[in-house]
Amino acid sequence: MAAARDHHSDSGGSRRRRSALLAVAALLAAALTGCTLGQEPQARSTPAPVLAPSAQAATGNIPQVVRTVEPSVVTVAHDQGTGSGVIWSKDGVVVTNNHVVRAEDQVVERVEVAFFDGRRVSGTVRATDPSTDLAVVQVDRKDLKPATFQRALPQVGELAVAVGSPLGFENTVTAGIISGLHREIPGSAQQGIRSLVDLVQTDAPISPGNSGGALLNGRGQVV
Question: 7 an active-site residue?
């Protein structure tokens, strides 16, 4: 992530460094919303081949992407916080982040799930995995629209659309690009913070509450 310095291009280098720092901050917000870090982690990256994206994938039709995916994105809330989630199956399975369903270092048993159609129902936390920061929530609905997921990695430079509930504002949409692949944020054994590896980096604006929501490509698939 370090930028090479050149005494003839200080202003350009400063802009690039600020952009890189903003992208890493967005990545941290997506991965660690609701967590407290004792020290600022340093992001690392593993070199990987970069493929040129197609023009359609890079630009996309954002309003169409939003219309396609909005019914598949939910808000997940409990007494201690709010996050987002993505519908996995029409019979009521929702996936979110593990830290979204935690309060005071404990997994909560029940959450409230708010849907695009305005309904709010109780959900049961069925499973969690701290290592991958994933959680599964079950709600009593059989008429949901599941999201579709891209199986391959996205391409650097491809359109990235984030849909979720940042700061509690439901169905908020922001957009940017895929900024990098295979990023790593080291953890801290002393502070009990796990390392995060093989991450996707984006410069789409992300705030606390986006956690668990969808990051989409130009075809409306979760990446």
Answer: no
Q: Kind and range of the H or E element at 160?
A: strand 159-164
| Catalytic residue (one of 99, 165, 179, 207) | 99
Question: Catalytic: 6?
Answer: no
Looking at the predicted structure, is the pLDDT value of residue 46 above 90? no
- Tell me what the mean pLDDT of segment 191-215 comes to: 92
- Here the tokens at position 135 are 């959680």
Nearest 5 degrees, angle CA 118-CA 69-CA 208? Answer: 75
Q: List, for residues 134-161, the tens digit of each pLDDT value.
A: 999 999 999 999 999 999 999 999 999 9
* Active-site residue (options: 84, 165, 179, 211): 211
What pTM does this model have? 0.73
C-beta pairs of 167-176 under 8 Å, 24+ apart in sequence: 167/207, 167/208, 167/209, 168/82, 168/209, 169/209, 170/75, 170/114, 171/70, 171/73, 171/116, 172/210, 173/62, 173/66, 174/204, 174/205, 174/206, 175/62, 175/204, 176/26, 176/202, 176/203, 176/204, 176/205
Name the active-site residue from 72, 78, 133, 165: 133
